[in-house]
Amino acid sequence: MAAEKKEKQTSRLGEFFTGVRAEFQRISWPDRVSVGRQTTAVVCVSVITGALIALLDYAFELGMNFLFTL
């Protein structure tokens, strides 16, 4: 009984990985140039967002310091 259960689990696991492999073959992977452009865009947007957050933080700090010195 235990051998049948183990065999059934092994069979299901094999079917799972067969399905995963089939799905990976159906994926349309981006080309190298596209990945480079998208990576550059993400880095640029991240730097701009970080600079904006730093600027806002600095402005809020100045504002709070001004209010506390009143």
Structural description of this entry:
There is one protein chain. This protein has 70 residues and is mainly alpha-helical. The chain has one domain. Helix content is 89%, strand content 0%. The longest helix has 37 residues.
Number of domains: 1
User: Tell me, what's the shape?
Assistant: elongated
Low-confidence spans: none
Strand composition percent: under 5%
Overall SS class: mainly alpha
Cα radius of gyration in angstroms: 27 Å
Instruction: Give a quick account of the main beta sheet: strands, pairing sense, barrel closure.
Output: none
Oligomeric state as shown: single chain
How do the helices and strands follow one another from N- to C-terminus?
Answer: HH
Counted by DSSP, the helix tally is 2
Mean pLDDT: 91
Indicate the percent of residues in helices: over 70%
- N-C termini distance: 82 Å
Q: Count all strands and give the number.
A: 0
